[in-house]
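Every protein is a chain of amino acids, and every chain bends into a shape of its own. Below is the pair of lines this work produces for a single protein:
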Amino acid sequence: SIASNNNVSVSVPEAVAAQEEEKADKFSSDKKENDIDWMYRPAHLQRFVEELNRLDPSRKGKVRIARANRRAMQLLESTEPWTSADKVVLGAVLIQMLLDTARVSIGNNNFTPGNLEEMHSGNNKYGQPAFTYEQKWKGINKLVGHVVMNEDFYQMVVNDKFSSLDNSTTRHKPMVIPPKEWVSPTEGGYSVLKTEFMRTHGCEVQRNALREADLSTIMDGLNVLGKVPWKINKEIMSLALTCWNDGITLGDIPSREDFYLPPHPVRPDGNSSDYKEGEGEFRRYREALIKYRRINQKNLDLRSRRGSALLKLNQSEQFKDFQKIYFPYNIDFRGRAYPVPPHLSNIGSDLCRGMLTFAESKPLGPKGLYWLKVHLANLAGNDKITFDQRADFTEKNMENVRACAEDPLENRWWMGLDDPFQGLAACHEIVKAIDSGNPEEYECSLPVHMDGSCNGLQHYAALGRDRVGGKAVNLCNYDTPQDVYSGVMEEVIKRVADEAERIIDIDATRDDLTKKEKEALTDHRAAVLTNGLIDRGVVKRTVMTSVYGVTYIGAKKQIQEKIEEKLEAKGYDIDEMDTEIYSACGYLARITMDVMGDLFSGARQTMNWLATCARLISSQGQPVAWISPIGVPAVQPYRQRQPYTVV
């Protein structure tokens, strides 16, 4: 137990602290040193923090710190489960400690031992708080707490590229030796760090099932994946760093400049004597607030993307000189295999994949150069034509390929590809293979990725023996690849165009419009606004996620992102059109989901049957669970959540 009565306070009166410490010391003196059944009272936490903040703790303080760390490690290594309440209480205390003790020296952008000593001097009151706690409204009646990073501290971290904070930002990194083989659900992966075999998210039922299952097949698979050696592609890494340093926005390299954020709008006091005037003031305030929040969210997204890019670049620099690096693997609750490192990995973003190659190269052989050309066409977005046509695409652009390989910053054809960093890596490899004089003998280490066609729909089509659906997702043999997204797109375009061209004989200024008439006017306006904006990208995410149970609200958000991009490109002020865009994207989401239901009725029937089974199972108080063909017990972790107060 970390807390007493689930009520932890970091600061307590001295008299109470002395009493609590005396009781706790007496309690702990009666326990064996290796016994983990111990308790930290508020006084101990206070003394622990005070000793940590001193540059030269007393001898007794050092003993106390060492003992606390040892006991904390024993507790973390125990198999006794932590309740959610215990975790929340401990988390609250740790966050409070962070807020109270973390300081940042403004005006000096270097992290040095001298700076740290100065920051910790004077009872840790030097500089400004590195983090602050703020509460913000989410919706109408929900207040959410946020830990906010000091602006100057953020800039220091970005300028430093996370290098000084690297040890505390990421624990799970690539390995320089092969991972330990998985032999049990608790043993395998990293040599020192503990790694979960399955990402159970605290589901005890799942953990119990793992202990009883035969996991030999899946463990053998993960062990094979973990033994594959990789290395950093220094050419692509160097170019990515140049893009970041020079402020070139490309792919996963975001802009280093925030959008201009106007001042926060002031809410009207509501004292206007004229009703219409007051209504107009509030409407303008609401529109300004929506614009402010939208731009602020864009800036927050940019900061998140910058952090992600910097962590990838930082790790690539750390491992660039190793001849071989490895990625330990584990699985999610369904049995899907993933590398454990969260930032740099071989299944990551375009930047990650571009910066990684196999450590062991092999001769291309008779068809290797052909597949490199197909690979480059895929990365350029030309993946809906035959393989021969894709190879021809690369042949026709060979002049661009060679120019980009020779001087990528001067010749920027590669920057227009769908996956620019992987595309440039392919350009380099194609040119090297051709210039070798014997492409078949040229030793290549570049991965050539292959992808399925909307895998979720493929599974449903196969389960239901759905020939129409199977044809759309390339389960049937055709010379030209089928594109399920384009099929949905064409039908959506047709329905939207028909609605936009329809003549609506309704007077929109009437005060007595019926609900049906209002809906007809809303749909017509939405069709007029979005007619001509719909392409494959607008519907792709909704089609892809439909088989995973995407909701109408989720589909509307997905479509809204793409429509806003297109309207911005045409010069529209999307902040001024927020209400119209919101309504139009709701209309498009409804049309897209209707088209999906019509085109893939077999998949929809199978989904409905599975949903009925899930309802029957859950009505008996049981989770939906199954055992996969290779022996992985899967327990769905989805639960209805209800809030309750812990602290």
Observations:
- Residues 380 and 416 are 8 Å apart (CA to CA).
- The chain has 24 helices and 14 strands.
- Confidence is low (pLDDT under 50) at residues 1-21, 23-42, 119-124.
- The radius of gyration is 29 Å.
